[in-house]
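A quick aside before the break. I want you to see a complete sequence-to-structure record at least once, exactly as it would be stored in a machine-readable document. Don't worry about memorizing anything.
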Amino acid sequence: MTNIVTSSGRRKSWSRPTTAMLLVLGIASRAAAGDEPARLLFGMEAAYARVHGYTARFVRQEVVDGELRPREEALLKFRRPGLIYLRWVAGPPVGRQILFVPGKNHDRMLVREPGLFTSLATIVMAPDSPRVLSESRHPVTDIGIGQLITLVLDGARRAGAAGELTVRDDGVAPGADGLERRLEVILPRERERGYDCYRLALSVSAESGLPVRAVMYDWDDRTVADYAYREVRLNPPLTRTDFDPANPEYGFPHWRVAR
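That is the input. The structure line, written in tokens, reads:
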């Protein structure tokens, strides 16, 4: 059974066939008021299907190898099917730029580091290289609203199929860029079950239906990751130049070094 708890504390149980039907139909818009948390949670996928690209201010803070890393902030450009440009504007890697285009450079990313000498060459490395994973819980290719939706819903679907998913509605509140619906997603607490977290505090834009912040808690209920997408601009006119290392605004050096 899947439990939905509304802000009033009222609990409603759904059978597995009903949950599956809602997922397949993308959660019908005529869902009852008591079904709103699930409609919003699983409706993120349908909302994202209308997005071809976007720009945003990506903010993250994570625990990596048991240590809380400093807060980072980067300007993000994204275009389907997975083109990514990042430029850090706050945090230890301020000034770093990353460009990833699927199928280019043998599916490796281009990195321009700040600094007098490190900026002289473009570094070519895998998005999931040990260097990347020493600074982040996920590969660079996992950055993005679509990947966040996949991460959240993969766990929610699995827990829902096992009758172990709880979604709580914490109501609507003003956010950094408008009204947000606050949801709490609770998964099985056993670490060995393979879920990415035990509890997830999710903020969904009331305007777009897309997640704009996700705070993840481990099995001891400690914060392990905080991701936010601010100043999101959907379907802007991004062109090939936005994902071209020759773009003069980026300044990627012609000299390349593989790492």
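Two observations worth writing down. The chain has four helices and 15 strands. The chain has a mean pLDDT of 87. We'll return to this after the break.
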